[in-house]
Amino acid sequence: MKTVAFIGLGVMGMGMAANLLRKGYSVTVYNRTPGKAAALIELGATEALTPAEAAGGNDVVITMISNDQAIRDVYYGENGIFSAVRSGTLLIDSSTISPSLARELAATAEQKGASFLDAPVTGSKPAADAGTLVFMIGGSKAVLGANDDIMLAMGGKLIYMGENGSGSIAKLAHNTIVGINVVALTEGMAIAASGGLDSNAFLELVQAGSASSKSAELKGPKLINANYDVQFSLELMLKDLKLSSVLSDSLRVPTPLLESAKSMFQVGESMGLSELDMCAVAQAYEQYIGRRLGGGSL
After folding, report:
1. Residue 132 CB neighbour total at 10 angstroms
2. pTM beyond cutoff 0.90
């Protein structure tokens, strides 16, 4: 069985690494912020002090990091992954990063005799914990076929998208839809709340009709209960929409809905909601209408 290094123990990474351990993999973990590894060590993980230490002795290195700059630091920085990676190692990045950076990482890996897959995920925290994530993968199809067991230990579905960078493009396009859907759901619920409708009855209608979506399923109850515990943070959604905006500009794709959704999440950021779940953007609408989406005045 392959040995694995897992770097990045945030909301998603914790569940992903835990599932690898539960499936019997030997896992070395590293996180830039100390103190995150205790629960994984209890499950049998070994903690490394640097990305290089984590990467140097393992067959597969998986990264789940917040943004492009952090990925650059982990891969290219002092004691970074590329300072220690061995020929034949597989690098899998499941972060949401720019397609250009994914291609750059793939090119550097090839120079060092390693392989690279950009393999971001969808499913947020519940799916990471349950091991039911969906991976969208860019890179060599042969490399994926030889290593699909690793990703299937963390997820329920693998979708091959094409060459390196394709996984990143797919994730940004996907999260554009997610961000727009969350804002659309919130806006519709704001109209219903302002009109005096019962929020539970309205959500039942949404889920039974053409407006039904995964966002309504996952976020509707959270909006009604003002539950902003993080499944996927507002900060990360805004980061993804900004990346998607840059990508769509480079591809000359008009994206008026993307820009509107991005603006709403920027409003949420300005209200200090960045570290809450992305559906906390509802608080902006609640300020506009002067009442809670789940019922009652502010």
Report:
1. 14
2. yes
